[in-house]
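Revision sheet: C-alpha cells.
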Amino acid sequence: MDYGATRENGIPIFTERVFGAFEFRYRDVPGAIYKLDAGPFFTEPNRWIEQVITDTAVTPIEPPIVYTDVRNKLREMDKAGQIKIEWWSGQKDDQAILDYWLRSATDSRYHSFVIQTARAYLEYTRPHLRQEFDQRLNRLT
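Predicted:
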C-alpha cells in the first residue's frame, strides 16, 4: 500500500499495489486516534501532511478513540470521502503475485524485512505459493 502521499482534491489516496495487501495489512489490526494540543509537532519529507511527529512527550487532552479493526475504519473513511482507497486492478493470478514478491525481495535494501513480509503474505493468502517462493528466491540470491 502507498499511504496517502498522493492526493486528489486534497484527499489522501491509499493505493493497493498488490492484490490483497489492504486486507493483509489492516485486517484485525487495532488502532487509536489521540487528540493533542498543537504542541511541538513537525512533519518530514515523504510523509503525508496529517502524519506528524515530535521529539518530546505529549499528553492527550481527551481519551483516545479506539478501533478494534483499522480496516473497517479506513473503509468507512473511504465511503465518507475522507480518504480514497484505490484497489489493486492488476493481474490477480498466482504468477503475477509471486513475481512481485520475488522482485521486491531481490531489489530491496530492506531485503530481510521484505522476505519476512512476503512469506507471511503468501502463507496467509496463497499458501500453495510459499514453497515455490523460497525455492525461486534461493536460486536468485
